Amino acid sequence: MTLAQQFAAYNDWRNRLSLNVADFRQWLADNDLCDAQTDLRFERLLEKLREDRLHVAFVAEFSRGKSELINAIFFAAHGTRMLPSTAGRTTMCPTELMYDRDKPACIELLPIETRETETSISDYKRYPDAWTSIPLKTNSLEAMQEALRTVSDVQHVPQERAKQLGFDPESCGTAPSTGDSGNDVEIPRWRHAVINYPHPLLQQGLVILDTPGLNAIGAEPELTLSLLPNAHAVLFILAADTGVTQSDLAIWNEHIGGGTGRSRGRLVVLNKIDGQWDELKSEAEIDAEIGKQVQRCATILGLPATQIFPVSAQKGLVARINGDEALLQRSRLATLEAALSHELIPAKQEIVRENTEAEFTSIFLRMHGLLESRLAGLREQLGELTELRGKNKGVVEYMMGKVKVEKEEFETGLQRFHAVRSVFSQLTNRLFGHLGVDSLRSLTASTRRTMLDATFSRALSEAMTKFFTDSRQSLRNSEGEIAEILEMVDAIQKKFVVEHGLKLSNPAPFPLKRYHKEINRLEQWCNTHLNTAFQLMTHEKRSVTQRFFDEVAHQVRKIFEHANREAEAWIKALLAPMETQIREHQIQLKRRLESIKRIHQATDTLEERIGELQHVEQQLLDQISALEDAGQAVRQVLRNRLDDEALRNAA
Q1: Per-domain residue ranges for the chain?
Q2: How far is Cα 636 from Cα 568, in angstroms, rounded to an integer?
Q3: Are the beta carbons of 41 and 573 closer than 8 angstroms?
Q4: What is the pLDDT of residues 587-634, one digit of tens each?
Q5: What are residue 85's phi and psi, to 5 degrees?
Q6: At the topology level of CATH, where does 54-153+189-331 sit?
Q7: Distance (Å, whole) CA 55 – CA 69
Q8: Strands (E), 487-568
Q9: Chain centroid, CA 519 distance in Å
């Protein structure tokens, strides 16, 4: 089974999960159980499932066969090459292949001149006018191929201009110009490309990142700090005839292998093994030569040989198009696909499962607790009315007084709760004071001033180090506020549980560990690529400062923005279960009091009222049973794993 078939099986699982979650949401709405806060949580959960993407990055120096490998693995069903694959460079800028149904089929190209601004690629994606858009005529293969070739456009500029745009001809190997001026060099015309194409796999959420060689990788910080680290799988491609070259090793050490902190989903592909095929040699001799090259590459990269996959992308593509099973087997493409799917699909499914299960379970338990609270209140009311059978009017008055006292005591507790809400607001304000973007903006401004005012390299280095130290301190301060918030909510919940019998689970924590890890990763990158003695001694102060804020501080800001959004959602959900049960308890007390008043005013309605409540009790029991069945339907899909049997059935 191909990777495409396995990915289709994963997409089918995700769609079934979305459908069951949506059905559960509709059931709650039909039974008047879905309040505004719960509905918002469902919307966020379903949106995450709808927008779920599977990112696969292909990284290599030029002429290693990246585009051909992409064609062979994902687009062979087209019967031809989707991406241009010719001798020399075909990928000049980072290129994303994806599908957004809200846009027409097109190629969006960001001019290379935008590097002179302080705006990142992700920020530019919010401004369509900054991009050059070329329509894709999907009904014409020739027109599509012509349009796709624009991604490879180049321009020739003076060396000084190339350096201004982030290209260093000497250290990065930018191609010299073939024009009249010997000082001109060749650079990409575009900074970034997004190909929006309605291919079945892209429609299902696959995103393919095709990267250029070392020159462009090193010049585009967002690629190395965000796009590559966040890819679910990275395929690093070498050529079988050259093995690991110096530029290959530089890419591996700086951006993929050592020091990145990521190993899962990182595969090495030794492409173009068909160059070793020789009719004058036996298959055993050919395999031995390929095996030696694999071992040499493994030694240089510091990997076990089992993590390097020799393939022929070109022969694999031809085999798939022509239905030649023998050639496909000899290309070894299926072995690579099996390894990729083993690394990629189960890991991705596990992430989606864990995130969905945590949110769904929280909502389910809240709804289940709500119905149980209603049932407990109703049974208490039913028990009180049952005790009134055959009792005189004085007993009825006593019961009415008892319920009134309970109601007054609860309202007193409610006043304390509202007072606590005020303290809660103060704590949340303090939390966002540490975690909010405003505090980081202030830190960024002060760091920029310090770096620009610095006289010596040491001051520049210390300013960068202090930026990370203060960022981590903000996270630690936030953890202190989170602990106080949890302690306060837990205390008030326990009080309501003991005094009024509410059923409440412990408040969910909000861990910041992943944000600490991201800050540490960025600091490690900074200390390797920017905050070094060599960089500080060989680059101007303003250049170092600009790179730090364009490349590093920008990513830290994105981390805090994400943490801020998640914290806001956590705060909104924290008190929601208690507020819901408080409202329910108020309603139950009011109904109990009204029932006893009605009995007090006309005792002959007692049996009728008991019958009504018994009917409502059965309805609540049926609702709880139906809720459990609806929840079980979602949990059943969550438990399904994409094992071999499930994949065969899905195919």
Answers
A1: 1-52+353-387+607-641, 54-153+189-331, 408-601
A2: 30
A3: yes
A4: 777 777 777 776 666 555 777 778 888 898 999 999 999 999 999 999
A5: -140, 100
A6: Rossmann fold (3.40.50)
A7: 16
A8: none
A9: 17
